[in-house]
Amino acid sequence: MSVDLDQTPRSLLISERSSFLDEKSRISSQVEQQHFNYKVSVLLPECGPTPSHLDSVLNSFSSFYLIRQLPIYELLDKHFLETAVYQGSVYGLSYRTRVDEENCVALMPNGRLCLSLDKDSFQVLGVEGKPSRFNHRANSRYVVSVDLTDSSMAPGGRGYLRLLTGLRSRLHLKTDFVLSHHPGGGASLQSLLSRHDWSEHRPEISHHALTNLSCPALPTSDLQSCDPHSFLEWLGAMDADVSCENSSSSFLSSLVCPEPKTTLSRALSVSVCGLLLPQDIHRLIQELRCYLEQPRLESWASLTVHGFVDSPVSWGGGEHGVLRGGENLYTLLMFHDHTYHLHLATGAHDTCPP
Amino acid sequence: MDEALVRARIPQDLVKVLGVESQSSSKAEAFTQAFLKNSIQQHARHDLKSMLSHKAVVLGYSRPKKDKTRRNSKKAKGLNARQKRAMKIFQIKPEHQRYELFLPLHELWRQYIIDLCNGLKPTCSPQSVQQKLLKADFHGAIITVLRSKCPSYVGTTGILVQEFKHVFKIITKEDRLKVIPKRNSVFTVEINGFISHIYGSKFEQRAGERSAKRFKVRGTLDL
Fold first, then answer.
1. Which residues contact A51 (CB under 8 A, 6 or more apart)?
2. Partner-chain contact B147 A120, CB within 8 Å
3. d(CA A164, CA A248)
4. Least CB-packed of A164, A185, A242, B81 within 10 Å?
């Protein structure tokens, strides 16, 4: 698909290739830094039914909790801070709030609370904040970021009281909130959950078997085999079950499989949706590595992780916004000799991935 | 030119040489006058005699100075702004900066506003109250910063002690005198259940001048 380059907002694609056995590989920190993951899709070529180990790993993903209309000052509750935030890591994100229209809240595992507010809300709240990096000419979006583990934000401290009165009496911020805790599970969140309308959810898993598809030939770690853009496009087409035949009678899609290509008789596409923790994704990667160690027909597997579109933060706490689309995703293409290609992609209103 | 030299008689030895004779003084004068009259162009309008005679010309006007000290003692001169600032009459001394001292002022202000709006009943229309408040004086009101471009001003509450052209000076419950610029802030004033929001950016006049100013109606105001 050709798009006019001067009309397209910029997007970033970083490609990296390394090996899991290399001690300088940063894959673990890169996976760790993407806190809020929405969807993981795995593509296994020449695979029929789902392997049992993979299934068990997918079923053991942590469950997450959805609270309806949580007043955000509850996140500053002393008991909640002591039991959940200070021990372990809490992943929390406001749900169904659009980051370019409404106010969004994110609670990161390192104890940072990040509020992305529009101008009126920021002027009413009265807590120090910075204008968003992605404002065009006039400041219409502001980001308030506080570190809840800092000494100034200790319960009873001046900064804590200012934020608490701001959220409680001046700006009554209430959103739906998805929450997850590692490693404790739901136990440490119980005190917060019990006061509000909450529900527990398991990540949603779906399997899809594809037959007779063409795929790019991927010999191990070959540099020039296929360029990242066309490979990612093909991968997305597989995930969305879009045919890559490009027959002249069909006008729905003109996506093609990149050359050089081979044919696969079958492939398996598995996807998991929900608030997924980086630790679970780590375990999934290890499981896929074990799967690839056994001799297979096709010696590669791909894993794509999508971040939340409406999250105010992206990799490592960097600011994230939505211009035309708020994609922040990474694709890990693994080979059986423990080498991998990693592609990190972001949209226009985003900082550079690590 | 020396007059005597002109009227001197010609020496005797030059008479025969020049071939002229001096006349007597009276005859010479008459001859001179007649000669001048014939040779000069005579305008009927010009009076030659008055033009040639000496006149006094006034070079400058100066009136005698009158005694002013008597007049000034009746009027008291005001101080100009520099002298006022030097005398520091606008500063409130620290021992006077107590919240309790200003509570009676607040009560006075409430009474004043209630009288201004002819008894502030709950059935009064907000429009009429707003019109009156636009021209009212706010010294002694309890005002709160509702919204501001600068986050640290938001939430400060206190009694207004001084209103200048660009700032409000308020005293908070903790006995702190705070100076809040009017620009880019929205203040809220509450009286008997009527809450008014004051957009400070449009309120930047001295308290006395505001009573004479007419305010335009604007749709929405963005900070």
1. A44, A291
2. yes
3. 62
4. B81
B63 in a structural domain? no
Number of domains into which chain B is organized: 2
Residues 6+ apart with CB under 8 A from A292: A299, A300, A301, A334, A335, A336
Is the CB of A126 less than 8 angstroms away from the CB of B151? yes
| Contacting residues of A for B146, CB less than 8 Å apart | 124
ipTM score above 0.85: no
Residues of chain B positioned with their CB less than 8 A from the CB of A166: 154-155
Domain that holds residue B132: 98-222
| pLDDT value at A41 more than 90 | yes
Q: Who contacts A316 (Cβ-Cβ below 8 Å, separation ≥6)?
A: A33, A354
Same domain? B102 vs B41: no
Chosen from B153, B154, B174, B223 to mutate, greatest number of chain A CBs within 10 A = B154
Residue A352 and residue A320: Cα distance in Å, rounded?
10
**Is B223 at the interface with chain A, CB within 8 A?**
yes
Q: What per-residue confidence (pLDDT) applies to B149?
A: 92
| CA–CA distance, A222 with A291 (Å, rounded to integer) | 21
Q: How far is A168 from chain B (nearest CA, A)?
A: 12
